[in-house]
Write a structure and sequence with these properties.
Four copies of one chain form a homotetramer.
Chain A: E1 2-3, H1 14-23, H2 35-47, E2 54-58, H3 61-72, E3 77-82, H4 86-89, H5 94-97, E4 102-105, H6 114-126, E5 135-142, H7 153-165, E6 170-174, H8 177-181, H9 190-196, E7 199-203, E8 213-217, H10 226-232, H11 241-250, H12 255-276, E9 280-281, E10 289-295, H13 296-303, E11 306-307, E12 309-313, E13 318-324, H14 331-340
Parallel strand pairs in A: 1-11, 3-4, 3-5, 5-6, 6-7
Antiparallel strand pairs in A: 2-8, 7-8, 9-10, 10-13, 12-13
Helix pairs in contact in A: 1-11, 2-11, 6-7, 12-14
Chain lengths: 341, 341, 341, 341
């Protein structure tokens, strides 16, 4: 069945798979820090125009959020996130499991606002009881957000400024970063992220890999004995090559960008198809996730013909549906969808 | 360079890799429980002669130990292990990170003893202060052990009996289980494990997969909302297919057994080669890890010619070295090694 | 200086102190479960009209909330509370430290609403992704609330009904319960609480003791090995007598009720004094905490003359101030305050 | 019944109780850092001859060990202790609950040995796999030990030197410190401890207080936001006065020393009585805990006449019994005991 369910329902991009095949017989010592890790890390440093970046490869998004947040926070600190932030609602309490509170700010189409962030931190320190409260110790944002939306460079700069004013790290969850970077509607680049964030991750699982996320510490701020703590979280692969080889492929010949650009182009075709047929959108997403409003009869009919996600009910008669494109989406898939909708 | 460093320094067994290639374009919903998981799980149930077994796939050994132990233990319980147990010394405190103590018993070539286990538990309950102590809530063993040794069926039966007497689960870490099962010196089978253990895992990472361990709950005792807790530990893959496809391949056409048998045969050739040349062994290992005593001059010389692990100093002049075989070890590798030693 | 700062700024009520003095030379075994614990527990059971109640004494409110919540929740569960709940904002992340998320509902003068609670839980289970989210595993309310307000018996009954419908425990934080029970504006009694809640605690620290909170499990639901887990949390006193003796005194000759009634009477005099002088109240509190709106000039002037808490700014010119009465507040203190305001 | 059960079975020393009575009506702001805390802290600084010491009051021993150890350790570190250390066996896993492993050394009558400590740390760093292991991050000792024995100044100096060589803090558990300091067989003083330890605590609960332990950070090394973390552990009293007032009394007119000296004198009388009657001792304890070997008939007979602790079986016919003295032990109690034994 035609599928726009998500960007993690296909295997690896053929070039990533080829890299796994080509390197399969090579003897590589375990636990990472092998030649593929080093090569991939260097390519990422170059792409980020950030030679001092420290790069570490993990396997999944929740794992990465948990490991990064819990190893950077002090025990008395929590992480600030949008109410809609993935770490707040959709990670089964992984942050709290690691002992830390998620402190929430309102979201604006998935984004937090720099002024509201500053006001939150100011109010915290102004509160005479703040020694009895959870200290804001990090800011977590995702880009694209849960709603596929993007921060502008100006917005990121403003958030980053607040973080530096209060000396707390800015952490950007880039599970779908490839789609954000290649959106025609963004002015944010990888070097911008390396400058504005203290740590971020470049998502692989949802951008062409079988698994893998590349954590980038931009300011020499990788915590001491980070690998030991990764092990302690159960997050270290014995065959570390698995992530290194894949990221080495993703950052060879601009594959990461090509995957992003392709999926964005497919998303635009999909959006155009829905728009043409008179559908409304829940919000304007410039990335590979499109949120379409379906009346419930259409919803029911389509569910038998194409795979997509039911996002949330809009009202009694209408539902928000999510359609997602990826490296594997083909123009003929969009054409086939256009016939159905 | 010739390598006997470990069983996780090569990629996937060709048949496992082929399965990944063959299924790469298939659309498969995320987070596991897909058709490959189901197929692999059923093949494992059959191999275990345990139809009620619940099977769940995770990515690595430390992760599996942490998730299984912490989700089965009550908060006031700890896990009993040999002092040499992997969970005790070589997992960066992953068990303690999850809030639980590792309670230690002496080891005998890596194994614990059923009588010492019973005595430990009896002494615990006899101690008038035991409400102020960590309750023994699980027994952890590995098979093969850290030293490559194996429990006999009689030993496992005795340990299992103690566990059932005190109603605490027996958990067997089978990171290298394939090598244990195919040793000529064992009388223990997969169905035996399914009968004697409450939970165990079948290691994939070290037995031909890129990553992956199959946890088997044998008595309907998978904890409620296990998948949610896996997510909470950061241990859930979005592309759950990665583990399912590999284990489906490992349990097709007896691949898991074939890998084990091959590595064991290579290990025996390797052992014979060392014996023939007059080397002594630190202990008699019937599996794919061989512990050879090298005088330090030989050690130094060999380190320039072949990769292996320095296990521990034996005395001032001699060192225990570990040589490991795997699916990728070839007879000509052994022949080449024989020339060097 | 005249003080209405809080109900924990004086020592013990004289009758409580006398009990400590009278029992000081008695030899009593350690760690609780001594004759004073047993006596106090029985008096509490009687006061609650709940013979099956299990009573355990801890030392402080945050400790009690942490121990009760973390020992009753399963690892994948969080606790539902009002955004204003003490556990959400004012316990330095003690619940998250124990691994659990606080799931928030809107508050209505500090209270949660049964319908909103049901809607929250229904929405959770209706969400197709709920296996990736934190399960609602307990409901936490406080009575009086952070704002000194009270639930009616009808409201508590409705909340309790939702909890039982979904089989999750209702936990009531009674840090200031004595003041709630003796308010003229309540229809809620201790036996009501024992019927409607699964667990609650009777606050001692803020109601005449030097320290101590009595946890009441109403349905035989004290977790197995609760004392061991109390120890594990660092919450067990070697001289358990300290809490037992105090609670035995508090529940002798209706002392707990007398303390509550006295403080309430003082609060009403205080409220009348402010009202008479034309002050407005932030909200109508029927208990020992009164929230008065002060213009900032008055605030400044009064701060030099009497101790009270600055609650929060209301607007640019006005501030919410909190005045609290206790067992030690005297009529002449109110009279002295009246002169100042 | 005559009781030598423990040093926490009586109430407060009369001078401590008097201080609580005398200050009961005083208005004192909550959560510690009040005038009694400040006064007690200054007296402790003076007694320690350590003006830069930072002093914080907690309520019990396990709590203190958990809070100090978990707030000083980094996440990847564990604490080294004797196998017999209280934190290893008798605190219900409180250290592991906080996420850290207890790394054990052999004990010598309850003490660890500096050379064995150095060897342990050296072996750790020499192990090529140590990034996968728990780092030694602190040394925990108790003085007196679990067996009532004491370190000499030379031994402490040697342990301290190893700690400083490896830059890990030395933490001394002084639950019964008063008895250690006043033993005729010690050359260790409070100023010595302040010089040699990085942090230690002065036990109150077992030395005349109702509850309370004074933590002393000797080198400006109290962790940032320590009070917030104390709150997070549920270890902060609202009426912080309770510990401050008691320690202020304990350090007034040498009360702490007088209590220690009295109990030691009683212990020596007790020891002499047993020795005179021909009893043997399990080991030579120079403090207030005496370990006497009783044949099992005598054990049984005495249990009906006097309270003491059964420590452990020695062999089939004999048992080690513990007799403890305290501030409340009187000469006539020893005389009465002499008649019975």
């Amino acid at each position: 069945m035609l599928s726009f369910e998500s960007d993690y329902v296909n295997g690896a991009h053929p070039e990533v798979l080829k890299a796994l095949i080509d390197t399969n017989d090579e003897v590589i010592s375990g636990y990472g820090n092998d030649r593929f890790w080093n090569s991939a890390a260097q390519k990422i440093r170059t792409a980020c125009a950030c030679e001092q970046a420290q790069v570490y490869f993990l396997t999944g998004g929740t794992q990465t959020n948990q490991v990064v947040i819990s190893t950077l926070l002090r025990p008395y600190e929590g992480v600030i996130a949008a109410t809609t932030g993935h770490v707040n609602g959709h990670e089964a309490g992984a942050i709290e499991y690691s002992g830390h509170k998620v402190l929430t700010l309102p979201h604006h189409d998935g984004c937090i606002d720099a002024d509201e962030l500053r006001a939150y931190i100011q109010a915290f320190y102004a509160d005479g009881s703040h020694d009895h409260m959870v200290f804001p110790g990090m800011v977590y944002i995702s880009h694209p957000t849960e709603y596929g939306t993007l921060y502008t460079k100006e917005q990121l700069t403003a958030i980053s400024a607040v973080c530096r004013e209060y000396d707390i790290p800015l952490f950007l969850d880039g599970a779908r970063l490839g789609y954000g970077l290649m959106s025609p509607d963004t002015d944010v680049t990888l070097p911008d992220l390396a400058q504005l964030c203290d740590v971020f991750y470049i998502g692989g699982t949802k951008v062409g890999a079988l698994c893998g996320e590349a954590v980038v510490f931009t300011r020499g701020n990788m915590p001491k004995q980070f690998a030991t703590m990764v092990k302690q979280h159960g997050a270290m692969l014995a065959k570390g090559r698995l992530t290194g080889v894949q990221f080495d492929a993703l950052f060879t010949d601009d594959l990461y960008q090509r995957i992003g650009a392709h999926a964005i182009r497919m998303a635009q075709l999909l959006k155009a198809a829905f728009a043409e047929k008179g559908y409304e959108f829940f919000l304007q997403s410039p990335t590979n996730q499109q949120f379409v409003i379906l009346d419930n009869d259409t919803l029911k009919r389509l569910q038998g013909q194409v795979k997509f996600s039911v996002w949330e009910p809009l009202d009694e008669h209408r539902t928000v549906a999510r359609f997602v494109t990826s490296w594997s989406t083909r123009e003929e898939d969009i054409a086939a969808l256009r016939v159905l909708i």
